[in-house]
């Protein structure tokens, strides 16, 4: 066999293997980009509703989808630190909103998307009906606690009333 035959044989073997490798590499990049874009979409769609399950899911997926992008992870950690911070400072809500916007902006940059930080903060739509529904839900949860406390107190008073005749007989 001549050198030309060996080169042809090598090309016949290496060509399809290289094509498969390149295809898998490109498909992996596409999947990663699609996953990142999905997280960014969830963050953007629910950014003014932090109690929304999709928002929580997106925030929790950031370290998975953006684990190779330090600016995203840094912004994510800063946001979580502020969320966990229990403070009554007047500027806490502003700092939290700024940290959220920075986190979303870094995710968008990593996903190859663009939107200004001020647009992230200001350009979002939440229907008043949705806000009203959430407020009613929150109020109902608060009322449930009050109802439970009233029932507990009522049971205590009923127990006292039931024990009162027994105390009179004993004296």
Could you write a compact summary of the structure shown?
The protein has 171 residues and is mostly helical. It is built from six helices and no strands. It has two domains: 123 residues, no CATH class; 45 residues.
Q: Based on helices, strands and strand pairing, what is the structural class?
A: mainly alpha
Helicity range: over 70%
Major sheet size, sense and barrel closure: none
Please report which band the strand proportion falls in: under 5%, 5-15%, 15-25%, 25-35%, 35-45% or over 45%: under 5%
Word description of this protein:
- The chain is mainly α and 171 residues long.
- It has 2 domains: 3-125, no CATH class; 127-171.
- The protein is 82% helix and 0% strand.
- It is built from 6 helices and no strands.
- It has helices spanning 3-46, 53-65, 70-84, 92-111, 117-122, 128-170.
- α1 (3-46) runs antiparallel to α2, α1 runs antiparallel to α4 (92-111) and α3 (70-84) runs antiparallel to α4 (92-111).
- It is elongated, with a radius of gyration of 30 Å.
- The chain starts with a helix and ends with a helix.
- The mean pLDDT is 85.
Write the layout of secondary structure elements.
Layout (H helix, E strand, L loop, with lengths): L2 H44 L6 H13 L4 H15 L7 H20 L5 H6 L5 H43 L1
Helix pairs in contact: 1-2, 1-4, 3-4
Defining key terms:
0% strand; 2 domains; 171 residues; mainly alpha
């Amino acid at each position: 066999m001549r050198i030309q035959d060996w080169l042809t044989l090598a090309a016949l073997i290496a060509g399809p293997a290289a094509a498969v490798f390149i295809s898998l590499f490109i498909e992996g990049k596409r999947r990663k980009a699609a996953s990142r874009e999905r997280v960014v979409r969830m963050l953007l769609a629910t950014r003014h509703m932090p109690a929304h399950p999709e928002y929580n899911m997106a925030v929790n997926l950031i370290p998975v989808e953006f684990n190779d992008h330090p600016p995203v992870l840094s912004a994510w950690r800063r946001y979580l630190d502020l969320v966990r911070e229990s403070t009554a400072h007047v500027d806490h809500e502003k700092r939290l909103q700024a940290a959220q916007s920075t986190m979303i902006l870094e995710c968008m940059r990593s996903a190859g998307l663009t939107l200004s930080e001020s647009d992230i903060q200001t350009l979002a739509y939440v229907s008043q009906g949705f806000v009203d529904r959430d407020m009613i839900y929150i109020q109902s949860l608060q009322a449930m606690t009050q109802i439970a406390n009233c029932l507990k107190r009522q049971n205590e008073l009923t127990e006292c009333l039931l024990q009162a005749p027994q105390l009179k007989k004993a004296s």
